[in-house]
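hiii, so i know i said id send this last week but things got crazy w the move. better late than never?? heres the sequnce for the chain we talked about at the cafe, plus the structure i predicted for it. fair warning i was half asleep when i ran it
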Amino acid sequence: MAHLLDNPIYNALISNHTQFSGAIEGPMFYQRDIAAFAGMQTYDERSFAKLYQQLPEFFVLFHPAELNIPQQFKLTRKLEMRQFVYDHSFLPKGDDLPIVDLKQDDVPKMIELVNLTQPGPFLINTIALGNYTGIFKDDKLVAMAGHRFHPFNYVEVSAVCCHPDHLGKGYAHAIIREQIKRILASGNIPFLHVKKDNYGAIKLYEKLGFKERTKMNAYVIEKI
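okay and structure toks below
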């Protein structure tokens, strides 16, 4: 039987993220100002045809298997990733740094940091997914992370990034630790995705206690 994290986007949109969905049934996708992600219960030709009818422009699919992308779509990029899960009930050891909750007014600074570090898509209203926290130095946002997919009792840690001028100061460790703390306090299980060759991030996640669950592919697709 497939694990629900094999299809994290679809399972998030039929459970805890229905309020962010741009669809009521069938292929599911996030509202375009929140996230450019879509998911389907089955990734067959009929489901892709329905998705084509509903979605504009481009979107991203997550799936652990190799998908056959129909000809009406253009596969612009495929990313090979690893999915990690934090399967402990305790908070990892670490220092408590001055971490603040990020607000809508902080979005321009968040987008600036994301554009610099490229952790993944972040749009004008992605912050609505919740629990975005950051570290500021001299009024400059230098590290941040937040929540993204929330399929049933799992919550994804996402948009993890640190300004290159502030690496090696423990900010990424502290910001992820804060995310773990919040997710565990809500009675959920933290998980995350990382590019398979991002060895520095993988080392940090493993140090914090995350364990790899499966390989995951991200398909960036455009309508033709």
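btw The mean pLDDT is 94. thought thatd interest u
miss u guys!!
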